[in-house]
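My main concern about presentation is that the manuscript never shows what a single data entry looks like. Each protein is reduced to its one-letter sequence and a matching series of backbone shape codes. For the editor and my fellow referees, an illustration may be useful. For illustration, here is how one protein appears when written out as sequence plus structure tokens:
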Amino acid sequence: MAGPGRRSARERLLETADRLFYREGIHAVGIDRILEESGVAKGSLYYNFDGKDELVREYLMRQHDRWVAAIDARTAAETDPHDRILAVFEALGQIFVEPGFAGCAFHHAGIPQPGSTEELAEKKFRAWLHELFAVPVEQGGYRNPGRLVSQLVQLYDGANIAASAAEPDPTAAEAARATAEVLLAAAKPG
């Protein structure tokens, strides 16, 4: 157990994994490097996690939870479906300018192997992302809801890619928001 002011081995492992996996990629960083940089013994790693797969799963879930919290914080006050959808892109704009932003952790993870930890975590993330748009699209009574949700998800993904490219586009979220507004107007009920 960690004493006052001392982070536990689990916390140090997760913080180190967050930093290294996010910056360098899941497959580029080995367990030995995580152990070295976290200052944690190998026995403590296996006491806290079954191995790298579980550490990767925890990393991806933590990243997912951070994005959900940031987006929920921006969209929670919006009761109008139209405004709630646009607020998602405004939240992305806030995320994109955070120090150290390097893109979506799920995009960094690459194409997951079937049944892998990455695939399971990405499926959870993708379900959340579709639901993020599907609920207000349904509440707003928009025409062609499935198509509209798909278009909004593509805008979200595209903004993430543009904001974290080799030459990042700091206006990616703003451009995605403007495009979303056009899509919403075109799909407006009635």
